[in-house]
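debug: dumping io for the single-chain case to check the tokenizer round-trip. Nothing else runs in this session.
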Amino acid sequence: MLTALHRGVPGSPTVVVFPHAGGSPRFFQHWGTALPATTLVGVTYPGRDTRVDVSYGDNPYGDDLVGLARSAADAIGHAGIASPVLVGHSMGAYVAYEVAAALTRAGTTDVRVAVSGQNPPDDRPTTTLHLADDADLVADMVRQDPGSAPLWQLHEVRSMFLPAVREDYRLLETYTATATVVAELLVCYGDRDHEVSPDRLDGWRRYAARFHPPVALSGGHFFLKAPDAQLPRQLAGYFGLC
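debug: decoded output
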């Protein structure tokens, strides 16, 4: 489940990243350059990369988003990662928060979380696209990331990746938050991201003991694509990373 992306200085903080629906932790690979002293670890969801033969139904805690998060929290604990900084984008924002919630309930008191490109859990999507046909599902992904359109026109790409994407959408669209209060939370979003409602982002406040007001960064929903380093720079400033 955990994928090493960059090895930092021994004893340095570890940043654990959680990708968007359909995404891979490799999406964050370039952060190793932006945070050279920091160890970077990614969470690989079932159905892709090295876990292509794994399904959400294999999770020991159930095949929903909270179950996924509890499995990831176990993996982080078993890896001996102390005081992690958890960073999630889009769907990954909810997973990162729920991992922090699980670690908090288990007694870890200093988990820091950064969420990007996502409204608060009580304002989650009300769509049911995981039940829609392939064309509608692809259309929604292209709407969010127009640059991906040529890839989704390829039959082999659809047949290989759509099942995992559909399952990610299911987790996102059926998610109910645990509402656990975590230690510290930073919210970031693209200033041209139509997937979020900036006037509602302050709602994340109720999920953290220490809350940093939302920070607008330049770009759309996928503003953090390589080589963009705006978000890791925010992490360095707010959480003392380098």
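debug: round-trip ok. The longest strand covers residues 208-217.
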